[in-house]
Please model this.
Amino acid sequence: MIALGNGESRKNLKLKNIEDKIVGCNAACRDFDLNHVVCVDHRMVNEALQSSAKNIYTRKDWVDRFEDPRVQTVPALPFKGRSKADDPWNWGSGPYAVLIASCLDSDISLIGFDLYSHNGKINNCYKGTPNYDVSEKRAVDPRYWIHQIGRIFSYFDYNHYTIYAAEDWECPREWKLFNVEVDSISKLL
Model:
């Protein structure tokens, strides 16, 4: 199973013919016919409803806004925590995509989870397009993503995770676990 983030490292990948194995984030449904797309922003749910996505996951509070049976609630977090980062409301589409992929399969590849910006500006392959921030906006602080995805890796310790990243990508300390490996995204090009 592939958890597909929207970091710029994945911009040139061709993932056609494996779309049934992808859990994508937000506007990934623009480029792929996805079985699973996570949209914790209600604007993105509206956009996903215009696509062929079969399962569209969003926040529990928003499911009733949409009458389409494809819209369903993101899964409940399988663990509790005391920090603000552990509050489900503070979870973004990326960590939820990793959680859903972890529930569907035991061998998960993470693609496009760049976390960091090389120039201090937003790192997203859809920046500057409808429902996204402009390309000059400051980069998002990845601390919550690192914490949340790290919790998933630890909880699903029987799963195997491969993170495909650029050669110079720094794996967060919290992700350096026995069930997580990093490989070069260039192998997928």
